[in-house]
Design brief:
The protein is an alpha+beta fold. The chain is 16% helix and 21% strand. The protein has 3 helices and 4 strands; from the N terminus they run βααββαβ. Strand 2 and strand 3 form a beta hairpin. The longest helix is centred in the middle third of the chain and has 5 residues. The protein binds iron/sulfur cluster. The site of iron/sulfur cluster (SF4) has 14 residues, from helix 3.
């Protein structure tokens, strides 16, 4: 049974670029590789799924994955299986 949410507490989000001293990229055992940049342009919402805000869009277009912060969790590749592939480092 799904619980109805009536109130959402305010939270905070720290952008990766604001946290230079906590670079999580060194945690990585696998690396996401984008196979189709045009397809990434159709799925801007994927940036919201990345826990490290490492998927960068500029002006609404896919730019790159910031590997200083990508920790290789694979959430993006799981969401867009045909577009992003995880490879061993
Ligand atoms: S694997 Fe994907 S979702 Fe996970 S941190 Fe890296 S870019 Fe973000």
């Amino acid at each position: 049974m799904v619980k109805e949410i009536k109130k959402v507490d305010l939270g905070a989000r720290i952008l990766a670029s604001e946290s230079e001293e906590y670079q999580t990229g060194s945690w990585r055992k696998e690396i996401p590789v984008v196979k189709d940049k045009e397809e990434m342009n159709k799925h801007v919402e994927i940036a919201l799924y990345c826990p490290e805000a490492a998927i960068v869009y500029v002006g609404g277009k896919y730019s790159h994955i910031d590997y200083k912060f990508c920790k290789g969790c694979g959430i993006c590749a799981n969401y867009l299986k045909k577009v992003i592939e995880m490879k061993r480092v």
